[in-house]
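Saturday, quiet lab. Running sequence design on the structure tokens for the scaffold JK sent over.
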């Protein structure tokens, strides 16, 4: 099963997927491309580190969405990889109906909270500020309902007395790095 990853930033989840593939822990899944909407993002380094195609795709003029000819170019580039799965791993743009319809039931996202709590940006900070005792991360299918598609799997993370936001972020990210490769392996039919 071909996997295309879309990301915008650090790329630690994409890196974990590539490490899992290298170590035999990604089932039948093979990462065939990493596409990024920012020219300078560290995620692009994965191309060199893992010998996978990793490149910038122009997202067009808007900061948080993908529309028109730019959306079409994303769809074409992804379709060319014949993906069985498209993984949004820190892709900081809303994907809309044409994009979602191009890959029906094949787009998943990782979000750093136990959805449906704390949708949107800064989810770890939202949970920390709210004072919940348990947060975590979620992998879900992507629909037009932002952070609202069917949940595939979750991992819980406890917020300890005297925790700092930085420490909590590190534990949530560690949970993401465990959760996502397992989900991709399962979806590949192992
Ligand atoms: C992760 O926390 C993910 O849940 C969220 O964006 C972050 C991406 O981190 N959607 P990275 O680029 O994978 O390191």
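Result came back. Writing it out in full:
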């Amino acid at each position: 099963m071909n996997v295309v990853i879309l990301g915008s930033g650090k790329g630690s989840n994409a890196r974990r997927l590539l490490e899992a593939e290298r170590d035999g822990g990604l089932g039948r899944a093979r990462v065939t491309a990493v596409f990024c909407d920012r020219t300078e993002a560290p995620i692009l380094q994965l191309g060199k580190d893992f010998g996978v195609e990793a490149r910038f795709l122009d997202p067009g003029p808007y900061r948080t969405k993908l529309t028109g000819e730019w959306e079409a170019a994303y769809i074409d580039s992804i379709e060319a990889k014949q993906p069985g799965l498209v993984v949004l791993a820190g892709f900081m743009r809303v994907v809309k109906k044409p994009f979602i319809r191009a890959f029906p039931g094949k787009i998943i996202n990782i979000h750093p909270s136990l959805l449906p709590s704390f949708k949107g940006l800064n989810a770890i900070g939202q949970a920390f500020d709210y004072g919940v005792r348990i947060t975590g991360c979620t992998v879900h299918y992507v629909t037009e309902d932002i952070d609202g598609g069917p949940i595939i799997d979750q991992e819980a993370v406890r917020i300890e007395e005297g925790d700092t936001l930085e420490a909590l972020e590190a534990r949530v990210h560690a949970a993401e790095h465990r959760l996502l490769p397992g989900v991709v392996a399962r979806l590949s039919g192992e």
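Notes for JK: The chain has a mean pLDDT of 97. The pocket of 5-O-phosphono-beta-D-ribofuranosylamine is lined by residues 7, 9-14, 89-90, 110-112, 173, 176 (CB under 6 Å). Ask whether to fix the surface positions before the next round.
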